[in-house]
Amino acid sequence: MDTIELLKEWHKKYPSHGYRWLRAKLLLDTGLFMSESYAYKCCRLAGIKSVSKHYKYKKPGESRTYPNLLLAGINIDGPSQCIVSDMTAFYVKNTYYELTIYMDLWNNEIVAHALSSRRGDRMTYINGLHDYLEFTKKFPGVKHILHSDQGSVYASKDFNQLLPAYNITRSMSRAGTPTDNAAMESINGWMKAELFSDFHITSTEGVAGQIDEYVKFFNEERPAYALEYLTPKQYREKYGF
């Protein structure tokens, strides 16, 4: 199969992405190397373009409970030092879902997630938090930062009371400033684009399992531009973690 046909095949599987990502994904999956300029020319000849949609996200501002430590320009040089969290919402066949994500800012690895089909379900935050706390045990001695927006659950006593015991310091975005958590906002948009364009979630049956499969794909099989087109897992292993 020639290069153009391969690119067409991979783009059919992952239509939300353009030539740079497809080039990296082919290298990861097949070992085929091509330059960026060559991949661009092939995709242009084949009419391959990203079909991703950008989702706008907006939350009302609330009073700040914790300072924004990310604005201080903290140095992140290893896993689990700074985790960012947010909730994103989407519909499948008119059924509403909320997905809460905990992501390592060092390598964009999703370390915990929780899903609910109930609007305003605080347990997606709490269940994800417990999985995140288990994750921190892999890195004893690390001073952890957990950053989020100023949502009511993130600011609640129930959410925060366990964190000091795990050496976790809280950080929050400024009120009404989603750009303070820009990495998480960007990932939320890509996730929803890929879930519907690439993973073809069209039925409410088995959504939770499909989300689990996507998270595994995201961590282990999805090249990331910010990581020089390594997957989060590859990036972590590259540095011996």
Automatic annotation (TrEMBL):
Domain Integrase catalytic residue range list: 75-240
GO MF term set: nucleic acid binding
Gene3D superfamilies per record: Ribonuclease H-like superfamily/Ribonuclease H (3.30.420.10)
Pfam families attached to this UniProt entry: rve_3
Protein name: Transposase
Top-level taxon in the UniProt lineage: Bacteria
Record-level GO BP terms: DNA integration
